[in-house]
Amino acid sequence: MVTPDKDMNNTSTAYPKLAVEFCGIPMKNPIVAASGTFGFGLEYAGYLDLSHDVGAISVKGLTPEPRHGNKGTRIAETASGVLNCIGLENPGAETFVRDTLPVLKTYDVPILANISSADVDGYGYMAETLSVDGIAGFEVNISCPNVKNGGMAFGVQAESAAEVCRMVKAHTDLPVIMKLSPNVTNIVEIAKAVEDAGADGISMINTLLGMAIDVRTRRPILGNLYGGLSGPAVKPVALRLVHQVAQAVSIPIMGMGGIMTGTDAVEFMLAGADIVSVGTATMVDPTAIARIAKEMNEYAEAEKLTHISDIVGGLRI
Amino acid sequence: MSGYVEAARVLRNEQIGADVWIMELYAPKQAKEAQVGQFCNVRVTDGTAPLLRRPISYAGFDSEKGTITLLYRVVGRGTELMTRLEKDDTLDCLGPLGSRFETSRHMLLVGGGVGIAPMLCIASKLKDGEEAQVLLGFRSKSESFWADLFKPYPVKVHITTDDGSLGTKGFPTALMPTLAADNDFSAVLTCGPTPMMKGVAAEAATLGIPCQVSLEERMGCGTGGCLGCGCDGAGGKRYKVCQDGPVFPAEEVFF
């Protein structure tokens, strides 16, 4: 959690108009480094000032036990997008808490623990194990498309999504943000279910299930056959889904899906996202988050906004 | 550990083989810190297609002139766009990235295909007390332009071809026992197709010479953030090729 000393620093943001609070977590700007694209954050300490440039960091998805992830090719580029099937490679929650968090928490930036489990009880274990000093909140992955029992089974049905949410809430006092899958028939129904189950916020969207084929070998390019699509290719879909969910729930939304520029981020906020998350852009440019924050501030200045939050849900129809 | 994002200026971009090009760029920050075996990750357009960067090993660098040299094979849209760059155009280069080769007293440098680039880099950067011999594996003599690149440097070049049209017929491993018998090599350093490197590493182990390999892997970010290039290491370890590699002791990744 944020120490008193760090609160002093929190008031000195580069862009006062971008400072926000999301689910009770103060952030210097509304940009969260997306889970799975930012390692555990430390990989980017040489590219960004983690204590000033980044709103929050959602760490690489953690599971109860260490995982090696999927075999074979795990990444493929498609038209304006990236397919991945990493398969939740991570050292496990306990190793993260013991080895990585002590270093990570020396930076003045909120850390969100992104958690997955193959069973509902495991989500309770994860919440308990990670409700420690240095963690500001949870992003609950019920939507990883790359792992059998990696959570997506929970995320595609309203009742199981709600069950996971209740389990995490029962094992932590920290804010709980449920990450929704776009690979569902009715995302609004699931959003409402997790809201009713006590979720403090929603993050959306996880990747869209896709595939790529090599016609020469006639084989799938990804070792896992299917993978999750991210990047600019998914942005229109993500915007539409954020807009639909924002109409239906009153808890705050972290919007993501192909944000490459400040303009993209503003679009998500107009559609109803309270804050945004940037992932694939970091893979292209490790300094992307700082640039996008600068561009969002330029928009706020140009539009004479008192605060960037003034545009949230401000879509004119 | 971290690289620099530089708007590198193209000094030269020429075709040297059927589908192989050489590009020299002014990129002073990475030229100053680059080490043999490291790579840069180039962004070929500022649009979104292609979206990801392309990892390319340094074939050379000059810290005083502030230049880096890249050898690249045209394999797709991204590298095809690179061929269109002209003198004084800029190319977004992120580097230096990854691990380096550990150089030593008398090295045998074994390269195949575009994996010859980092071997050229080592040959161009020999320090006092270091010497190297080069062993290149080609499909046929049509690839001999690679050997010409080593002419400026004080290294003996040995060649094998799959079809016997130049040098010794066979794979580079065929020549290794003879070369090892005639020389007291301190290390074998290799980069090329994975089957070739596995063969070279196995032969080096048989000959009792320490071997380092440079892995080629699809990368998402090149900066350790996405785990797209994760690989198994000895003893159940996990590595990121972009950050822990691309250069590894052979026994750490081939087992």
TrEMBL record, chain B:
Cofactor binding mode and count: Binds 1 [2Fe-2S] cluster per subunit.
Iron recorded as keyword: yes
Keyword Flavoprotein in annotation: yes
Matching CDD domains: DHOD_e_trans (cd06218)
Pathway annotation from the record: Pyrimidine metabolism; UMP biosynthesis via de novo pathway; orotate from (S)-dihydroorotate (NAD(+) route): step 1/1
Cofactor: [2Fe-2S] cluster; FAD
The entry's keywords: 2Fe-2S, Electron transport, FAD, Flavoprotein, Iron, Iron-sulfur, Metal-binding, Pyrimidine biosynthesis, Transport
Amino-acid positions noted as binding [2Fe-2S] cluster in the UniProt annotation, renumbered to this chain: 221, 226, 229, 242
Binding site for FAD: 54-57, 71-73, 78-79
Domain FAD-binding FR-type: from-to ranges: 3-103
InterPro entries per UniProt: Cbr1-like_FAD-bd_dom (IPR008333), Cyt_c3_hydrogenase_gsu (IPR012165), Dihydroorotate_DH_ele_sf (IPR037117), Dihydroorotate_DH_Fe-S-bd (IPR019480), Dihydroorotate_DHASE_ETsu (IPR023455), FAD-bd_FR_type (IPR017927), FNR_nucleotide-bd (IPR039261), OxRdtase_FAD/NAD-bd (IPR001433)
Function, as annotated: Responsible for channeling the electrons from the oxidation of dihydroorotate from the FMN redox center in the PyrD type B subunit to the ultimate electron acceptor NAD(+).
Subunit structure: Heterotetramer of 2 PyrK and 2 PyrD type B subunits.
Family recorded in the similarity comment: Belongs to the PyrK family.
Protein name (database record): Dihydroorotate dehydrogenase B (NAD(+)), electron transfer subunit
Species, as recorded: Veillonella magna
